[in-house]
């Protein structure tokens, strides 16, 4: 398995449990981030729709306010210098209210009207066109409130858009990088542990076969070719495949033992059982 697609860990039971625990934690975090992204998307859609409606209302209100201002200029003449000279304490202030939207800190702007502030222009236009001056003041006051609301919604939409992009990057990183790496690491550990188990099983079979072969050779050399009661009992307890292999090995060893004392007339030794005639089931391992 490619090491770039998994974490560099040792194949052990402890690391297997650790990988499973990490996968559970990553899966839980993935679900939380996905839920957060959905909540931010929902709130972002609501804020965007409200922002579009507020923008339309703001355009209409500003148009009406500037029409009222044009009417005042037509009635009373140019009054910008008079207004600028009498600017005093602000009658409308902006209050910042912190909000938390699915873990994203935002600020909501709310207009607050100062009731104790002195209106230095409350008698402006009293001689002529006073009602138009009052209408213009009211229109611009309403436009200011809508403008503050528009700024608050626009700021919220910008923050939510950045938070949604950041959350989606985290979700995609977990889904496309971290979770596949954890799964590949778990698969690698399982494969290595299975391979070690097979190697250990094969080693135990080889050791067992070697012990049985040594025991059979010792029994043959001790009895001179005959079988004792212990050998009969061992033969009965052995599997059929091991019995065939032991008989073949016994015949070869017995023939080699008898070859030292006598041989046939031609002087050629022919064993009873050849290794190339063994079946796969006759192998001790």
UniProtKB/TrEMBL annotation:
<keyword id="KW-0813">Transport</keyword>
<comment type="function">
    <text>Subunit of the V1 complex of vacuolar(H+)-ATPase (V-ATPase), a multisubunit enzyme composed of a peripheral complex (V1) that hydrolyzes ATP and a membrane integral complex (V0) that translocates protons. V-ATPase is responsible for acidifying and maintaining the pH of intracellular compartments and in some cell types, is targeted to the plasma membrane, where it is responsible for acidifying the extracellular environment.</text>
</comment>
<protein>
    <submittedName>
        <fullName>Uncharacterized protein</fullName>
    </submittedName>
</protein>
<dbReference type="GO" id="GO:0046961">
    <property type="term" value="F:proton-transporting ATPase activity, rotational mechanism"/>
</dbReference>
<dbReference type="Pfam" id="PF01813">
    <property type="entry name" value="ATP-synt_D"/>
</dbReference>
<dbReference type="InterPro" id="IPR002699">
    <property type="entry name" value="V_ATPase_D"/>
</dbReference>
<comment type="similarity">
    <text>Belongs to the V-ATPase D subunit family.</text>
</comment>
<keyword id="KW-0406">Ion transport</keyword>
């Amino acid at each position: 398995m490619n090491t770039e697609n998994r974490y560099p860990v040792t194949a052990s039971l402890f690391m297997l449990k650790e990988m499973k625990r990490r996968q559970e934690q990553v899966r839980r975090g993935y679900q939380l981030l996905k839920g957060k992204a959905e909540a931010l998307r929902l709130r972002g859609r609501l804020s965007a729709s409200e922002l579009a409606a507020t923008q339309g209302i703001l355009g209409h209100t500003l148009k009406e306010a500037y029409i009222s201002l044009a009417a005042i200029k037509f009635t009373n003449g140019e009054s910008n210098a008079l207004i600028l000279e009498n600017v005093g304490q602000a009658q409308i202030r902006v209050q910042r209210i912190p909000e938390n939207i699915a873990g994203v800190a935002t600020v909501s702007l709310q207009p607050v009207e100062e009731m104790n502030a002195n209106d230095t222009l409350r008698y402006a236009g009293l001689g002529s066109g006073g009602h138009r001056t009052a209408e213009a003041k009211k229109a611009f006051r309403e436009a200011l409130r809508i403008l503050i609301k528009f700024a608050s919604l626009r700021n919220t939409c910008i923050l939510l858009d950045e938070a949604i992009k950041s959350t989606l990057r985290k979700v995609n990183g977990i889904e496309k990088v971290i979770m596949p790496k954890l799964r590949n690491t778990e698969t690698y550990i399982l494969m290595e542990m299975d391979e070690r188990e097979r190697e250990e099983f094969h080693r135990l079979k080889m050791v067992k076969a070697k012990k049985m072969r040594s025991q059979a050779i010792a029994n043959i050399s001790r009895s001179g070719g005959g079988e004792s009661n212990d050998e009969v009992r061992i033969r009965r307890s052995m599997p059929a495949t091991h019995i065939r292999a032991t008989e073949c090995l016994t015949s070869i060893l017995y023939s080699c033992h008898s070859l030292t004392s006598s041989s046939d007339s031609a002087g050629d030794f022919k064993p009873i059982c050849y290794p190339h005639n063994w079946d796969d089931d006759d192998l001790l391992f």
